[in-house]
Design a protein that fits this description.
two-stranded antiparallel sheet; 4 helices; three-stranded antiparallel beta sheet; mainly alpha
Length: 161
């Protein structure tokens, strides 16, 4: 009988140690964040910041785009980048906003009011042709041509080389 009691005591001690180890492991694992299934959009630093860090001077002379059209409702889209640079708009405001707050399917209900469809430069659904620009041939020019030049395409096609 004595041997059985000793064996039971050892089993109880082993079970107690196992429970403590399990508790410690649970506390350790609770500290780990569970990985999310939703992918975060990559955050990239603006080119201006990277150029500043490299010691290069940056002055954006790109005029605001006035030819942009909302892909959802075909209304005019405002280019807010110059207003953000000047400080007229907050840094967190969108780079582009749809002008149509009534019929656009991208309108969302905010906390206080309806919010127009908006895009930031790193938005996944930003049409890439909105930010395509052509650098002027003359480095002294104070503009950047944002229109697509079809004449160059025709010239390239006619060239035998």
């Amino acid at each position: 009988m004595k041997q059985i009691d000793q064996a039971l005591q050892k089993i109880e001690l082993g079970k107690k140690a196992f429970d403590e180890a399990e508790q410690i492991l649970a506390e350790i694992l609770q500290g780990d964040a569970v990985p999310s299934v939703i992918e975060q959009e990559p955050v990239s630093e603006p080119i201006e910041t990277r150029m500043e860090e490299a010691g290069l001077e940056f002055e954006d002379k790109t005029p605001p785009r006035t030819d942009l059209v909302c892909p959802l409702c075909s209304s005019k889209v405002y280019d807010n980048r110059p207003n953000k640079r000047s400080g007229q708009y907050k840094e967190t405001s969108p780079d582009f906003t749809c002008s149509n707050i009534d019929d656009c399917s991208g309108v969302v209900q905010g906390d206080v009011r309806k919010l127009r469809k908006s895009w930031w430069l790193n938005s996944k659904d930003l049409p890439q042709d909105w930010i395509n620009t052509t650098v002027p041939h003359n480095p002294e020019a104070d503009y950047v041509d944002t229109t697509k030049n079809n004449n160059n395409q025709e010239e390239e096609k006619s060239s035998p080389f």
